[in-house]
Amino acid sequence: DRVSIQQWIDSGNRTCPITKLPLSENPSLIPNHALRSLISNFAHVSPKESSCPRTQQEHSHSQSQALISTLVSRSSSNASKLESLGRLVRLTKRDSLIRRKVTESGAVRAALDCVDSCNQVLQEKSLSLLLNLSLEDDNKVGLVADGVIRRIVAVLRVGSPDCKAIAATLLTSLAVVEVNKATIGSYPDAISALVYLLRVGNDRERKESATALYALCSFPDNRKRVVDCGSVPILVEAADSGLERAVEVLGLLVKCRGGREEMSKVSGFVEVLVNVLRNG
């Protein structure tokens, strides 16, 4: 899409090809890392399925009720819950009606309980389901109210690498809603857990934690919180290693006084910026 948009602009067009509204005199393209991350992880945790005809969709809707019943039943074994979660993840990937059905059925509480499980596979599938459910804007605030942040923070600290990456992506999705940015930012250890993951995680974990921090830092009050967690040297190191999203976070932190002060203390900070500019 970026190539097509750039070609449109380079051809001298100064109106949006969709809305026909005028663009600025010298429009610049800014990558939406949060959206890119959500799309990437959505595909990662929910394997691609072929489109199904109407009869198969109707079957999926009727099937979902049985899967929900298994998930919420206290008598269900972990194996049966895992099977139900896996199939619900596939069903909720593209079907908004099933996402709403799962939410309205009370299955969110059961999924949250599975996140608390010591079974890492069960934990990963439940996080994937919650990520799918969070695609509905109406669910984002409800998930936070149901206590999802506490579970996410715990997973960011002690979960498996895949679970940590999905948990960070889930925070990014929830932070699309402005009120959630404030709630997540003020939650004890939420930001510090992301900063810690940025420091010690693998490539995927670091990318997702940086994306979540970027989404949260669009809320001004969170910038000081991120700075106070000692993030600036970690972000500079990540930027120096080529993590583009770390540069984007620094671009937001520089807007607060504390961020600028911390950046001035980092040895070689200017050199890192020069290298970033030189290498694109």
Automatic annotation (TrEMBL):
UniProt KW Plastid keyword: no
PROSITE patterns attached to this UniProt entry: U_BOX (PS51698)
A single MF term (Gene Ontology): ubiquitin protein ligase activity
Pathway(s) this gene product operates in, as recorded in its UniProt entry: Protein modification; protein ubiquitination
Annotated ranges, domain U-box: 1-49
Residues covered by region (Disordered): 46-65
Catalytic activity of the protein: S-ubiquitinyl-[E2 ubiquitin-conjugating enzyme]-L-cysteine + [acceptor protein]-L-lysine = [E2 ubiquitin-conjugating enzyme]-L-cysteine + N(6)-ubiquitinyl-[acceptor protein]-L-lysine
EC number(s) given by UniProt: 2.3.2.27
GO BP: any one term: protein ubiquitination
Entry keyword set: Repeat, Transferase, Ubl conjugation pathway
Keyword Transferase: yes
Transmembrane portions of the chain: none
Pfam families per the UniProt record, alphabetical: ARM_PUB (PF25598), U-box (PF04564)
Enzyme class: transferase
Domain of life: Eukaryota
Family matches, as PANTHER family: U BOX DOMAIN-CONTAINING, U-BOX DOMAIN-CONTAINING PROTEIN 8
Name of the featured protein: RING-type E3 ubiquitin transferase
Gene: B80
